Amino acid sequence: MDYSTFKKEVPELISQKLGAEYKVRLFELRKSNGIVQDNLSIQKKDTSISPCIDLRYYFQKYIQGTVIEDIANAIIAYYIRSMPEQLEPDNLLDPGYVRNQIVCSLVNTDRSQEFLKECPHFPFLNLSVVFYLLIDDVRIGTGTVMIRNVHMQQLKLKKEELLGLAMKNMGRLLPADFMTTEQLISELRAGSMETDAGIAECRDGHSDTEAMDKKLQLFVLTNSRRSYGAVWMMDMEVLRRVADQLKDDFYVIPSSIHECMVLPAGYHLKTESISRIVRRINRTKVAPEELLADSVYRYDRARGRLIIAA
User: Fold this and answer.
1) Among 50, 98, 141, 174, which is most buried by a count of CB atoms within 10 Å?
2) Which residues have CB under 8 Å from 303's CB, separation 6+?
């Protein structure tokens, strides 16, 4: 069965299993970096929200040998776990709640042109700031809802106020975290993270950067949840504190949308060499939807500003 047949048969099978009380539909969701995701929505008649289920993930399970009946059952089970009976979505429409939960992230401007047409955003160097709601519910855990143009009137928001609200909330909900790469890798050793592979590659694997050996001290700038943390590279106060700690200018190297590597400028490495490493890591170690930029940025401590260095 090819993918086009799969994405037709799975919703039909789920609809048969759940019955007329549920609406099952497949829709495309445009994301950053030019990615279009096929999402499955299951919505009960008496509720207005539904989790977005990535159908391509389940197609990979099918290719690996899972039968379509089991896939349909797995999707239904996921839906049930994500939608407890007593969930009250009214908070998502309450302006007071929404204003306190708006946070932001960065995307690549050139690669995300179509996506940015659908979302309020602000430029930052060669990147763009986009906004989402961070949802914490003890019953369903943590989730995010991207703020798109169609939501602005419904949520009673003005574009001009988004950035100020987001940065204020970020300090409370997702504060910046700065550490050595060794500390982060040690923290996440039990799991799997693209940065781990990328850092190893950066430190040990490129003929043009022999100076980047084990004596080279790399740092990571992210947030407390290690999710969408690269956005802190746009906060000049955070960068000033980093520079004060390092007592030096430094390079900011986005290893994904979730974190940036920070390299003190005192090592006197050529920006072109660093840029080559960034491009290679982005092509081989970073998931396409998590790629931020091939650029290398430099923070000037004396002037208190960040520029594109390469």
Assistant:
1) 174
2) none
pLDDT tens digit sequence for 180-207: 887 777 766 655 444 344 444 444 433 3
Place of tokens 């969408």: 228
Closest CA to 241 of 180, 168, 299: 299
Place of tokens 């106060």: 237
Residues 6+ away with beta carbon under 8 Å from 232: 170, 176, 221, 222, 223, 238, 260
3-state secondary structure of 57: helix
The residue written with tokens 């039968």 in the block is 67
Q: Could you give the residue ranges of the DSSP H alpha helices within 26-177? A: 55-63, 68-82, 95-101, 113-117, 149-152, 159-173
Considering the domain architecture, whether residues 244 and 266 belong to the same structural domain is answered as yes
Higher pLDDT, 197 or 310: 310
Under 8 Å between Cβ of 260 and 254 = yes
Residue 59: per-residue pLDDT: 92
Tell me the per-residue pLDDT of 117-127, one tens digit each, with 9 for 90 and over: 999 999 999 99
Hey, what are 201's tokens?
Answer: 């590659």
Contact 204, 181 (CB under 8 A): no
The SS3 of residue 191 is coil
Domain boundary among 155, 173, 191: 173
| Position 108, amino acid | N
> Are 33 and 291 within 8 A, CB to CB?
yes
* Helices and strands: H and E segment counts in the chain: 11, 13
**184 shares a domain with 102:** no
For residue 240, give Cα distances in angstroms to 169, 204, 230, 234, 250. 20, 29, 16, 11, 10
**Exposed/middle/buried for residue 196 (C-beta within 10 Å: 0-12, 13-18, 19+):** middle
- Taking residue 260's Cβ as centre, other Cβ atoms within 10 Å add up to 27
Is there a single domain that holds both residue 38 and residue 99? no
